[in-house]
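Please, structure for the following, as tokens.
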Amino acid sequence: MADINVQAREPMSTEEVKEQLKESIERTREDVVRDVRRVERAIQKEVREFTDWREWVRSYPLQTTLGALLIGIWLGRKLF
């Protein structure tokens, strides 16, 4: 049979439990803050890319040119 070395531990004091809980909460809080910041940066990047008209022109040159032409014609008829 395998020799299993089991150490008998004394029950933890209330102060030890409190300290472990505080450390666990602090680690969890730091993890959450790090994750929120990572998500925030990702969202900001997506918004910047989505709202950058130059990226739209690079990605869809024909469509944006035609769209600008149509908007120009429409505005020209409305204003003049």
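The radius of gyration is 30 Å. The chain has a mean pLDDT of 90.
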